[in-house]
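Hi W.,

Here's what went into the run:
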Amino acid sequence: MSTKTTPTIGAGHDAAKPSDTSLKGVRAILEQSKNLSLLRLSTAGSVDDGKSTLIGRLLHDSHSIYDDQLESIKGKGQAEETGFDLAYVTDGLRAEREQGITIDVAYRYFSTPRRRFILADTPGHEQYTRNMATGSSTADLTIVLIDARKGVLDQTRRHAFIASLLGVPRLVIAINKMDLVDYSESVFGAIRQEFTSFAKKLDVRHIKFIPVSALKGDNVVTSSERMNWYQGEPLLRYLEEVYVASDQNQVDFRFPVQLVLRPNQNYRGYAGQVRSGAIAAGDEVITLPSMQRSRILSIDHWGIGAKPCSIERASAPMSITLTLDRELDVSRGDMIVRAHNVPKVSNRFDAILVWMSESPLEPSKHYILKQATRETLGLVESIDYKIDVNTLHRSSPTPLALNEIGRIRLVTKQSLFLDPYKLNRGTGSFICIDPTTLLTVAAGVVVEKGDIQSLREKEQPTVGTDLHRESSLLSRADRELRFGHQAKTYWCTGLSGSGKSTIARHLENQLFRDGIPVYCLDGDNIRHGLNQDLGFSPEERVENIRRVAHVAKLFNDAGISVICSLISPYASERAAARKVIGAESFFEIYMSTPLDVCEARDPHGLYKKARSGDIKGFTGISAPYEPPTNPDITLDSSTLSVEECVRQIRELCSRP
Amino acid sequence: MALAPSRSGGVTFLSLQSRSLSDPVEPELSNRPTGCTFFSMVPAANQTPSYLEQLEAESIAILREVLAQFDRPVMLYSVGKDSSVLLRLAQKAFWPEPIPFPLLHVDTGYKFEEMYSFRDSYVSEIGATLVIYRNETAIAEGTNPYDLGTSRCCSLLKTQALFDALRQGEYDAAIGGARRDEEKSRAKERVFSFRDEFGQWDPRNQRPELWSEYNGKINKGQSIRVFPLSNWTELDIWHYILLENIPIVPLYFAKQRKVIVRGSQLIPVETAARILPGENPEEVICRFRSLGCTPCTGAIRSSASTLEEIIGELLFTTSSERATRVIDHDQEGSMEIKKREGYF
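Here's what came out:
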């Protein structure tokens, strides 16, 4: 068998082999290779499915292994017809060769006349699932190997799921060891059917099935004559041709600032890598979190073979330096985006977390979060559920342990600038670092409500299936920019007579005078109109809160801040309101005025009636009040003046 | 620009296309960019950066990350071709500022004369700060690979010297030009690679490294080795040197040199060369594919005297870059052992 006798660029395909080895030939190859695209792929599959052999075969048959490298593995392992064990090509660590398994991700580089490849060879063993996730995080495509004799295994499902979770847009299912099942079409068909039905639960755009024998070389680089029933292309040709440029988000310009470059007084450049989208000189941008507007003065770039200069336009994934037409306070961790296309700015969000550490997640621990170029502390507020990666079923939300995956809600000290991972891998991903050990303990992807709907089994449809949402041409961000203000909801909760309505009225007045569009929703007033059909039973109280929360949400969407003044005695209902309105816009104001003071005030004589039994189910007397455990602000109107209460809330409002 | 409709439009289209998962994807369907189904958001002239531009952008982002995350970074400078590329990338990453960290050359005393002179002139030409560190004690004791063996010699003059240099300079990050395609154990390296208080690498317990989120957090005494060229291949390096016109040590170009032919190795006759009985120096047209210490770096027979000729040779070669590096072949997994101990 000939080894590397043909060039690396130009290998494997006769069509592009240079006719001569002269400089003209070299120049032609270089010219051609300059425009080659890059495909990042990863491999997955269970132990013994033949992953390393397949990669060895790809590298060997595409002439990407040097003679001395082959020489060093000759006679080791199980020598095949090639004279050496193909699997030995990839396993790099001594422990791996000793145990015959892959422990850590190994990166391989090869190329054909049509494409350059970076291949992440990831471990199949269950205990190294985290390394599999590492390999998938940057992949455009994942090859999942299946042993034709064994069919779809737990590990196959686990890996396919992790690949889909990490946003790998396409899977190649390489059904391997076809030589051991007599190249049977029906075996291939059955496995394909089984995987297809499983894959309906996954969020993967393209799935391609290829029957191969890595050991014998069938359908790896060249089409197999032993499987004439397979009409598709062999693996390598598919890898060369599959179109991946569309995976890059070219719409949403996101530029996390890495560094500020200040070589002299006259130059202030923001250095970074465009994570997605594109920008041109002169475009209007805003910087987050300050929300200040400016225009791109220059895009500075030192291109290959060029002199440093300003360029007209830049797109992902270029590393550039931006200057703005105004002096602004911008530093590392800030983000420059288009004025009318901003990510979500939030310190509370939902995510799916892959836990990668031997020590399980500690719910009360503040982990360091790294997202884009921003770093802050984060706390897992709740674990909604864990995902059993073998069945994709949800299981009980116990703290995550090594290799476990769960949907969680995070609250961070500083706000982050986030896009759903599905739309933007560059701004929808983050890692968690243990503040004590400094180890990377988890990888997370930002999800929107309903993102993994397909995984939910018993989700009650909240609207009829014939109902659709119409989306406005204007976003909330558009309105907020117009009003120069981020709409929020201030939710005042507390006993009757605790001062909610008084504070709400004065706060509304103050905000309005400060030029902020605001409206007060008073619980009693709403019960006269919208909610006049509701009484005070627990169910009706719940419905009362639900309606008020949705009205507040509509106001907020319209760009108007809302002050809600309701007793809202149940913690769960206030949490539900928070969810409806959006945690980042919701502020809980707890009026903690003691019961005896409230009762002494008794502005409407209700306490008296409750004590005498004329009113049933009165909060604080004959119905429970659950005080907030973690309100944004606590105010006791028996010790604080109205002005002081309003001042304190006003301070909260000016928080970013 | 109203961007949202285009995005949701793209998604709808795709879900229609991929209704049957098992069907092969028709190229003309999958070729349709998702970003522009209803509105033409992206100018038609939009070009995806080439792979070399992507590699460059990634390396620059890594270098900038180092400056942002560390207090005292340093860039290892070995005078070789990879170091030359690394230097150019650092110039680009911080331009119009000068390279914001010093260069560190761990000198064994066994380098080629041409490397020393190139180092001094090039570093001063680009205005970088150079720190040279030598394990003077070991050098004074006459440490050499002939008597101690290559692995002891490397351990004293390179690994130990590097460790001492990093400790003395209190550097918390050391940027190196190692590439994953060079050697098996390097294929397993992280871009940000953690080293404990003893400068040691634990390949079985590396920090997961996802996306481009690099974890540079360390306690005092620990450090991070950073490899911005991780994803480059030898050919990429040469291609980039050609396109960028980067100066390199003339040893890479073929000319007539005095060498000892020892088996398949061509050992350069420099001051440190030890000539065995029966060996006679010969004049051979040769060049060096990879540069290390003179006793341990073999030349290759070659007439390639320009960058294009070198690339041409590389395209047709059948042996790997490090085949001429004696130190890689002492024993099974020798690079891995050296790396664990703190070798770059």
